[in-house]
Amino acid sequence: MSRNVEIKARLLGIQDILHKVVGIADQGPIEIAQDDTFFGCDTGRLKLRQFSADKGELIFYRRTNQAGPKESFFVRSSTAEPAALREVLSFAYGQSGRVIKQRTLFLAGRTRIHLDRVQGLGEFLELEVVLSEGDSIEDGIREAEDIMQKLGIEPSQLIESAYVDLLGIAPEGS
């Protein structure tokens, strides 16, 4: 399984932080439309992320709900038929939620910086510090906290839940 350290923070507006993100990013912006469908799963979360009619990925992940930096374990598998896969998984496991967002991706070293506009919720920042096999979680936490400081993210802005939880639709097994 791959792993990262991540945080989510509520923003009053993406424009308020955009210049700071651009100032620390090595790459970006990359605009990505995402339509995430969640399915029942007892051992973590299972979602199908659709990017277009012929591009998607199935993602299984496991992480704790806490406001600060947290470790996440995940596995991804690409699909060229996301609509058909959604139908199969819906029959097999049942849909438990859907999150539609417009994501602006930046990269700062090994950290993915997401500026998300989530339908029905508002605007958010998400950091994902990608960890290699030999990296400690403490190194990832320090890096996330350093970027949070550079961007002016306050502890009161951090959220512990996934977007699907904030929408009031909690996937089974979460």
Distance between the termini: 18 Å
Number of strands: 9
- Arrangement of strands in the largest sheet: 1-5-4-3-2-6-7-8
Unreliable stretches: 170-174
Helix content: 10-25%
β content, as a range? Answer: over 45%
Could you list some keywords that capture this structure?
alpha+beta, eight-stranded antiparallel beta barrel, single chain
Describe this structure in words.
The protein is α+β, with helices and mostly antiparallel strands. The chain contains 4 helices and 9 strands; from the N terminus they run βαββββαβββαβα. It has helices at residues 15-24, 82-93, 137-151, 163-166; strands at 2-11, 27-39, 45-52, 55-63, 70-79, 95-108, 111-118, 122-131, 158-159. Strand 6 and strand 7 form a beta hairpin. It is globular, with a radius of gyration of 16 Å.
What secondary-structure arrangement, pairings included, does this model have?
Elements (H helix, E strand, L loop, with lengths): L1 E10 L3 H10 L2 E13 L5 E8 L2 E9 L6 E10 L2 H12 L1 E14 L2 E8 L3 E10 L5 H15 L6 E2 L3 H4 L8
Antiparallel strand pairs: 1-5, 1-8, 1-9, 2-3, 2-6, 3-4, 4-5, 6-7, 7-8
